[in-house]
């Protein structure tokens, strides 16, 4: 089974949440704050949004926008 765009962007968002300490790391099972990892993955989602603009299905575009918004909101909450 291949990976689709939705699965791909959700994995990046999950990595951002791990960096924010909101999800356990798969290698340690621990929740650890790594702000730079979170920021890098959020920036990666934003880059994908920019580079794929007008090339995604409506559902893919909505998912990507929602994930970026959620990740950015959690980022601001965590670094306060």
Overall description:
There is one protein chain. With 80 residues, the protein is mainly α. The chain has one domain. The protein has three helices and no strands. The chain has helices spanning 5-19, 35-52, 58-79. Helix 1 packs antiparallel against helix 2 (35-52), helix 1 packs parallel to helix 3 (58-79) and helix 2 (35-52) runs antiparallel to helix 3 (58-79). The protein is globular and about 35 Å long.
Structure summary:
The protein has one domain (5-79). Helix content is 69%, strand content 0%. It is built from 3 helices and no strands.
**Average predicted confidence as pLDDT:** 95
Shape: globular
What proportion of the residues form beta strands (DSSP E)? under 5%
- The helicity comes to 55-70%
Query: What class would the helix/strand composition place it in?
Result: mainly alpha
Question: Which stretches are poorly predicted, pLDDT < 50 over at least 5 residues?
Answer: none
- Alpha plus pi helix count: 3
Report the count of strand segments: 0
CA-CA gap between termini? 41 Å
Sheet of most strands: none
Number of domains: 1
* Rg (CA only): 13 Å
* Order of helical and strand elements: HHH
